[in-house]
Design goal:
The structure is a homotetramer. By secondary structure, the first copy, chain A, is of the alpha+beta class. Chain A contains three helices and eight strands; from the N terminus they run βααβββββββα.
């Protein structure tokens, strides 16, 4: 399992007239979370695009428990529970407020694709190598 | 069953550097679809808020099949498959491009809540009355 | 002078917790206005990009008089007051609500650039030809 | 003069299909900059709203020199050049990339207003007191 954490300060643009963060913006929080998850492996999603691999989102499920509010410093915890096989990768995200209440949980599935041919491909080997240690069986 | 349709032109702000609509923006398309669904009943969500009822989103599931692109005129088809019971309502959305290809399908669940007390409540009677004819059994 | 008009319905995502449209979103309204201005000439900005010409924004000035609100049907009036010379074009936008009150006025300056070389260029001839009749002196 | 600095990582949602940050998003960078400017005084804009004072934007001027790109870590330098008089305050923002190139410069004017009456008011005394030391004449 590979788990990372990042904090995001809620700015005004993210709120709506219900006085809370607009539900559609959580997809951005998941995005920021998984980008930092990749960065903390010593690699960036930007590098991957430069290598000709893109990761389009194919599925999102998002569950809203409590609202995030203006100026909240939320924490996004991003978890990769299983080593991806083939072209598919699933990130699980949990979003907490400063009182450590769970606000939102999301699952985002992405594909690895070659941008040139727009065909699915396996996870790049250098990313795989960096992730491997987190999924090794202790025994 | 109650079905409505609305078109949206994709502007530049909605695209990302993959050259397609950013996945996080589809929640807005669903929102526009269900708002128009309510408006076509001769009622508005704005009226409902003025009456003290808000409808926070509690769950979204979104499946991405093909990308929407800049300047596409997409069609959002919003379907209410079942008459809501209690405080919960589920809208199903399908998004098509001009070639009538299905781009995206989404399910959004919302609650009816009293804004004053922030407690769940039933669907307002006037909305219920407008919807009733679409769910009457024939026979 | 070349003037066009388009209406935009304010959806929830555009509001903020002040209960009005977030100021940063007006740039999108100007964008939608000038895109439709080009479309009404029988041409699209999308065509222009396909021809290898892009139009980055280099300057925006925006003045806020009254707030736009949720569910307002605003009108964006886009005016090209002068025929562009060289690589620069300036669109003036005015935004009105349904009571015909002026909400906002904006000036957006863009450059014509060749996307391949990223160098400034003149307005494409076909766009120029379409615009010419609106700027002919009556005499 | 009162100057503060904050860094923002550019995420995918902020890019457009030109491969750069969409021009309309810079207003958010200014907002984040001035919010942090206030926070570094030991005060928050959130506190001010709780006290019944809001700060709507009345004017923005934004000049674009170079594009910000995906994954850039931009720096927003926010400057208050003059102590506000009456109800008006002007923040100047400059945005730099990691190579310390100036990407964008913006001026944002806001009003202090009482949210209850929606009338203009003076800057709250506690904010004024915190700012005063930065504008004292040396002599």
């Amino acid at each position: 399992m590979y788990i990372t954490k990042i904090s995001i300060r809620i700015h005004y643009a993210l709120t709506d007239q219900m006085g809370v963060v607009y539900h559609g913006h959580y997809a951005q929080f998941y995005e920021i979370g998984r980008t930092e998850a990749i960065r903390q492996l010593g690699f960036t999603y930007k590098d991957m695009e430069a290598m000709g691999i893109i990761m389009p989102v194919v599925d999102i499920h998002s569950n809203f428990l409590r609202p995030a509010k203006y100026d909240d410093l939320i924490t996004v915890i991003t978890t990769l529970r299983e080593m991806p096989v083939h072209h598919k990768i699933l990130f699980h995200s949990e979003i907490y407020n400063e009182e450590e209440q769970l606000l939102n949980a999301g699952d985002v599935t992405l594909y690895f694709m070659e941008s040139k041919t727009m065909t699915r491909c396996a996870m790049p080997a250098n990313l795989k190598n960096k992730l491997q240690p987190y999924f090794e069986e202790k025994g």
